Structure to design on (319 residues):
């Protein structure tokens, strides 16, 4: 399947792409557009103004995707809090990791083209997911 | 200089989304250019943040359009920048005053104040597009407060054995 999002990916879009590949569509292909009108007809848009899978009611796109595909994994929801704060910084959640994640991905998007940013951040989100998973199992910060 | 402008209208009632939007715009540090018109210097982050506020306004039953614009006069642009800088200056000054106040109080309260003020400083910096000198002064005031706390912690560590040695009751009561 093809998925479309805005070019110049940042934390929310990187996290959504990772989520889509890991949980919704293993063979997902991503298209980067500069405006909603240029989304190809066969592509599902996300994190784009006006799209169903975008910001809604104060949620970031990552949270919207979790909600609409009924993904209930608590590790993903904890990750969602970090993505939310890194993206929106509205202090709805306590997520001190967000600040660091935000600047690292901002730096990556200044350095690499979008498809490469998705590749690098996929590894980051794999690691972050594992860290959060262990933390949730242990009930405290792992190692 | 390029600006991102948000022109919007949001229903008076219900008031909750209207207040949420107002708070978000304040947090972003927008220049209020007119009734239902706000602006920020355009960059990747501000464009995105403004787009999401626009989306939220539409979700709340309002209307919103987002524009990229440049001013036709440097004078009016400078006046807007100066007003934004003045708003940040007042916020930095408040941080400095609170840091100085905390430095005179008990150590635990000062430590709490330091954490709170560091978060506050970061919030102000994020919406500071024309940094005044006060930014550095506010950061320096917090570093001074942190240094003082470190010094106080060092004192209490150094003072601990001395206090124990000087309190015979402690030693007698300690299990051996």
């Amino acid at each position: 399947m093809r998925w479309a999002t805005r070019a110049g990916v940042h934390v929310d879009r990187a996290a959504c792409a990772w989520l889509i590949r890991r949980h919704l569509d293993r063979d997902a292909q991503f298209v980067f557009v500069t405006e909603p009108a240029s989304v190809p007809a066969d592509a599902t848009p996300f994190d784009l103004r006006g799209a169903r899978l975008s910001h809604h009611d104060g949620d970031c796109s990552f949270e919207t995707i979790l909600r609409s595909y009924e993904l209930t994994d608590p590790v993903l929801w904890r990750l969602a809090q970090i993505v939310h704060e890194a993206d929106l910084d509205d202090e709805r959640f306590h997520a001190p990791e967000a600040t660091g994640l935000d600047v690292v991905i901002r730096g990556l998007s200044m350095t690499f083209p979008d498809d490469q940013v998705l590749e690098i951040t996929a590894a980051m989100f794999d690691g972050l997911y594992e860290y959060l998973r262990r933390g949730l199992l242990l009930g405290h910060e792992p190692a | 200089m390029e600006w991102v402008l948000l022109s919007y209208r949001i229903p008076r009632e219900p008031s909750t989304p209207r207040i949420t939007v107002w708070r978000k715009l304040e947090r972003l540090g927008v220049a209020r250019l007119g009734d239902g018109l706000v602006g920020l210097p355009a960059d990747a982050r501000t464009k995105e943040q403004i787009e999401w506020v626009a989306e939220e306004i539409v979700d709340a039953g309002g209307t919103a359009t987002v524009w990229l614009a440049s001013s036709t006069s440097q004078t009016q642009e400078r006046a807007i920048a100066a007003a934004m800088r003045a708003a940040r200056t007042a916020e930095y000054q408040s941080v400095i005053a609170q840091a100085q106040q905390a430095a005179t109080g008990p150590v635990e309260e000062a430590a709490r104040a330091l954490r709170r003020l560091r978060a506050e400083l970061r919030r102000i910096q994020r919406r500071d597009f024309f940094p005044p000198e006060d930014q550095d002064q506010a950061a320096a005031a917090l570093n001074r407060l942190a240094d003082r706390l470190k010094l106080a912690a060092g004192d209490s560590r150094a003072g601990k054995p001395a206090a124990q040695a000087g309190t015979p009751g402690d030693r007698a009561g300690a299990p051996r």
Q: What stands out?
A: Chain A touches chain B through 15 residues (CB under 8 Å).
